[in-house]
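In the design runs reported in the main text, the only information available to the sequence generator was the tokenized backbone. The following block is the verbatim input for one such run; it is reproduced so that readers can re-run the procedure and compare outputs position by position.
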């Protein structure tokens, strides 16, 4: 029996074949990249901590006579299909940064990452377009230059850093320069993401934040963020529940997400190492040790807690992605775009 993703991919492949019957294949000669989703902040690490997750978006790109963007999957419905698409706009920036005129491009995209849910959908699009366009350059830009470009486009480094480099990324962006370090999570770490059925834009989630904070709250977050990074570096995962406490953004965003305070307060009693709002939300994320065997208990707690507030959630059990954006195939490969997606 095929998985839901395999069924979706096969349906998209049939649709693509029907559209292009008797014509040149739109993915011919394309570079194809795979980009992981990401969770940001991890509680106290506001705009500075991000982790890549094994949930993916794919971007194919090639030079063409005329720009067109092919979008596949329900997560892409309603997005622009011309030069006003984010993927083309980002690709054009790469060519311009390399001192070249932006060419006409044929782009295909498919994503498993839900939009405006706090799982880095815009960051994955930015990183995917950067990496694909960079692969088409005669002299590709270094990865750190792509990181600076990504930060300038996204305005913070956590999601784009995780999608670009993989693992847990500790980073800063000061408006001009960007720096990062990657930490590889231990193999037994897993993440449970509870994705509500409603969307929450980053803009709206940032509007509820105060313009200034008491010194004690700033000190609280610095200490907890430092402890969280140290816990991941040393494998002291028993410290994560305390280290993920936050006084900077989660208390102010809780009113936007019914059930969030109860999840953050109670997840550790049901098998979680720690829990947080994923990025700007509304997705909630709980980390766990796979060796403990408490996945069903944690999933039940997340589902029941949110249901008590009338919120239906899609819960996905994911592993951190140790790998960031990856070039899967280059010009000359005879797979179709959706065949490449299906093979991961």
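Verbatim output:
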């Amino acid at each position: 029996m095929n998985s839901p993703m395999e069924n979706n991919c096969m349906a998209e492949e049939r649709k693509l074949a029907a559209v292009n019957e008797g014509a040149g294949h739109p993915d011919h000669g394309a570079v194809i990249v795979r980009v992981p989703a990401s969770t940001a902040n991890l509680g106290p690490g506001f705009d500075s901590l991000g982790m890549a997750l094994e949930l993916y978006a794919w971007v194919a790109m090639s030079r063409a006579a005329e720009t067109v963007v092919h979008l596949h999957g329900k997560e892409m419905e309603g997005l622009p299909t011309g030069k006003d698409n984010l993927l083309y706009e980002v690709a054009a920036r790469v060519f311009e940064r390399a001192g070249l005129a932006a060419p006409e491009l044929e782009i295909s995209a498919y994503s498993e990452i839900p939009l405006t849910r706090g799982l880095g959908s815009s960051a994955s699009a930015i990183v995917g377009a950067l990496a694909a366009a960079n692969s088409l350059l005669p002299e590709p830009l270094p990865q750190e230059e792509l990181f600076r470009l990504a930060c300038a486009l996204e305005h913070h480094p956590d999601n784009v850093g995780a999608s670009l480099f993989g693992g847990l990324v500790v980073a800063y962006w000061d408006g001009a320069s960007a720096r990062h370090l990657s930490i590889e999570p231990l193999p037994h770490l897993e993440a449970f993401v509870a994705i509500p059925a409603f969307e929450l834009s980053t803009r709206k989630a940032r509007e509820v934040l105060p313009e200034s904070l008491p010194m004690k709250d700033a000190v609280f977050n610095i200490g907890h963020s430092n402890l969280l990074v140290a816990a991941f570096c040393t494998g002291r995962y028993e410290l994560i529940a305390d280290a993920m406490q936050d006084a900077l953004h989660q208390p102010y965003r809780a009113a936007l997400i019914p059930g969030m305070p109860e999840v953050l307060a109670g997840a550790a009693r049901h098998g979680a190492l720690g829990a947080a709002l994923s990025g700007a939300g509304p997705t909630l994320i709980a980390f766990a040790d796979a060796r403990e065997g408490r996945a069903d208990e944690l999933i039940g707690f997340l589902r029941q807690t949110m249901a008590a507030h009338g919120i239906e959630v899609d819960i996905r059990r994911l592993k951190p992605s140790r790998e960031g954006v990856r070039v899967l195939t280059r010009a000359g490969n005879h797979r179709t775009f959706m065949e490449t997606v299906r093979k991961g």
